[in-house]
Specification:
- It is a single chain.
- The protein is an alpha/beta fold and 303 residues long.
- Helices cover 43% and strands 16% of the residues.
- Strands 1, 2, 3, 4, 5 and 6 form a 6-stranded mixed β-sheet that branches.
- The protein binds iron/sulfur cluster.
- The site of iron/sulfur cluster has 12 residues, from helix 3 and helix 10.
Length: 303
């Protein structure tokens, strides 16, 4: 944080003077979420990284993180041939949520009880409907696995569970930091998403998938053969639903991998040039920086 403030201000309290006084403080690593934010609106990047203004996470973020923790708990137990149950997974998910809640409760519209109920519903869908497709991999002999996974007698194990990776960016001297949710010895990347609506094909073919392919290679893992996205949807006032999208034969092409690296290079070039113009769009209506953005107007910021 480079802006000298006696006490951290909220986004609403931030003034044009605070924004003007900010000094360049960009991170020394990149991530796909930084790239997506930069593509969405350069000024968001300015507020987040140059001004050091963090938007406190909403329920979707901390609720999704809690559901991930529950799934990770169960798969790690299975990996080590320990018993699991929906109850223990729920405990792991709600523990994670309660820790996050203690720091951010005031920014979440739902009550604590409502949040726990939604997390429990999403966790149950994962445990009952998705987990059976993932757990057969721990059996010694596999005849057939759902979703045309593989017809094989080989034992399939998870190579990585919530695996952190640092991917060097050629020619930039920086790294991409990321995490792969689950990766198995048959070369399946499995990404778990909790969301309000199902994903379309374009959203699925993202820079994130390209970085997974490059990260698997760097980690010395088997070649990525399939990418599966387990999507648990939280529809308004309805029971959560599950979708799984298997991007069969659609792992990112070499051209897409190069495009991802070039996109990171493009972001760095704009950072170096101090280009952080606003990109007004429908996204502004839900943008967490709207309050401060309205105050500073359409002035172009150069650092
Ligand atoms: S309100 Fe709009 S222009 Fe301003 S930072 Fe957010 S997305 Fe960008």
């Amino acid at each position: 944080m480079v802006v000298k403030l006696k006490k951290q201000k909220s986004v609403e309290q931030f003034t044009k003077e605070d924004v003007d006084a900010a000094e360049k403080n960009l991170p020394n690593y990149y991530s796909v979420s930084q790239l997506n934010q930069s593509n969405r609106c350069r000024r968001q990047r300015y507020f987040r990284y140059v001004c050091g203004l963090k938007i406190l996470p909403n329920f979707n973020l901390i609720g999704g993180s809690a559901v991930h923790s529950g799934a990770e708990h169960t798969l790690r137990k299975k990996q080590n041939h320990k018993s699991t149950s929906l109850d223990t997974q729920l405990d792991a998910a709600t523990d994670k949520f309660k820790k996050a809640w203690s720091g951010q409760a005031h920014v979440i519209e739902e009550t604590k009880g409502q949040c726990v109920d939604v997390i429990a519903a999403l966790t149950e869908v994962w445990y009952k409907e998705i987990q059976p497709d993932r757990v057969p991999i721990f059996k010694k002999t596999i005849k057939k696995i759902n979703l045309q996974r593989v017809d094989s007698k080989r034992t399939i194990k998870f190579t990585g569970i919530e695996q952190e990776f640092w991917l060097p960016l050629p020619g930039l001297g920086k790294y991409i930091l990321g995490f792969i949710d689950f990766f198995d010895s048959m070369g399946w990347v499995i990404d778990l998403k909790t969301t309000g609506k199902d994903k379309n094909e374009n959203e699925l073919r993202s820079h994130q998938l390209s970085t997974y392919v490059m990260a698997a290679k760097r980690l010395g893992w088997p070649k990525v053969r399939r990418i599966a996205l387990d999507v648990v949807i939280k529809p308004q006032k309805k029971k959560p639903k599950r979708f799984t999208h298997v991007l069969s034969k659609k792992t990112p092409t070499k051209t897409e991998l190069i495009h991802t690296i070039d996109s990171f290079r493009g972001m760095e070039a704009l950072d170096d040039a101090g280009q952080f113009p606003p990109q007004y769009s429908n996204d502004c209506s839900w943008c967490g920086y709207k309050a401060v953005c309205d105050k500073v107007g359409s002035v172009s910021y150069h650092v």
